[in-house]
Design a protein that fits this description.
The chain has about 300 residues and is α+β, with helices and mostly antiparallel strands. The protein is built from 5 helices and 16 strands. Helix 3 packs antiparallel against helix 4.
């Protein structure tokens, strides 16, 4: 990827996250590759529309984020451009981390942005607009990666759409340190489910079980891809958002490690919620992320 293309990508992510203030001053790191890596390491795979296949973290402290996620999940990093690094685990690319300047007029709001696989970014854009959402960063063609754009739904929750040039990662059980799930927190779960059904073609399954942790499940090709939970709060400061989850070996140990690394716990493991196998934490820059312990006897693939 050329430097102008990378600069446009970086600017698009910053603008989409609502975090653009002024050019970042982060120092350049040794560069291993000049462009975004393919999702499948160059091996052609099939497309799995609706599956979340990538995530970008926008933060005002790239170094702190690298230390935290590297120590917590075992991620390794390499730079493809000053201010943007790619995270990988055993040479499998997982995410990007983007440096942005701290705003002068408001608190910093680092966040993760998940990207769902789509058959056509153009069609996804039209569906987003028709359903009442907004285009935050229009379609960008990235060598080796494919096409992507960033949107906001009707509630303002930010998400990306990606058509990978190498296909999507297979539906297999995530290893510790890999993405295992993503959940949307919405003020109107039914309306949100209808929005994403129109945009991504999901089949929506309503969850009416007692004590449920989600209200709707978004599925495609027989696989659960994401869940939607209705926020039951009157606090106007709590905004709709997408929350990705990483698999860990032991949630209790991971929570302890989060504290040691300077992070905070936003939802403690509780026996009433998935037998205490899930927690929500924040990295030292304030970005929220979920962690989940998974019993492999439950089965693989998420069907």
């Amino acid at each position: 990827m050329s430097v102008p293309s990378l600069n446009r990508l970086r600017l698009a992510i910053l603008l989409a996250a609502g975090l653009m203030a002024s050019p970042a001053g982060t120092a350049a790191q040794p560069t291993r590759v000049p462009e975004m890596p393919p999702l499948n390491g160059g091996v052609q795979g099939k497309r799995l529309p609706g599956k979340f296949v990538w995530a970008d973290l926008v933060t005002d402290d790239l170094a702190a984020a690298q230390r935290f996620y590297g120590s917590l999940f075992g991620w390794k990093f390499y730079s493809i451009h000053p201010g943007y690094v790619v995270a990988e685990l055993e040479e499998r690319v997982l995410a990007g981390i983007l440096q942005r300047p701290k705003p002068k007029d408001r608190p910093a709001q680092p966040r993760w942005i998940g990207f769902m696989s789509v058959a056509s970014v153009d069609r996804a854009e039209k569906a987003v607009v028709k359903a009442g959402g907004r285009v935050l960063a229009p379609k960008e063609s990235l060598p080796r990666r494919g096409e992507q754009a960033i949107f906001a739904d009707r509630e303002g929750a930010v998400f990306g759409a990606l058509r990978s040039s190498s296909g999507d990662p297979d539906d297999v059980l995530a290893a510790p340190g890999e993405w295992i799930w993503i959940q949307m927190l919405s003020r109107d779960g039914g309306a949100a489910a209808a929005f994403y059904r129109e945009v991504a073609g999901y089949k929506v399954v309503e969850n009416d079980t007692p004590g449920r942790v989600s209200d709707f499940v978004l599925t495609s090709e027989g696989y659960a891809r994401a869940t939607i939970r209705t926020l039951r709060t009157t606090d106007a400061a709590v905004q709709a958002t997408w929350l990705p989850f990483v698999r860990v070996t032991r949630v209790a140990e991971a929570v302890t490690r989060v504290r040691e690394l300077g992070g905070t716990i936003r939802f403690e493991p509780s026996p009433e919620v998935l037998q205490g196998r899930v927690a929500i934490v924040a990295d030292p820059t304030g970005a929220s992320i979920g962690i989940m312990e998974w019993d492999e006897t439950r089965g693989k693939g998420g069907r």
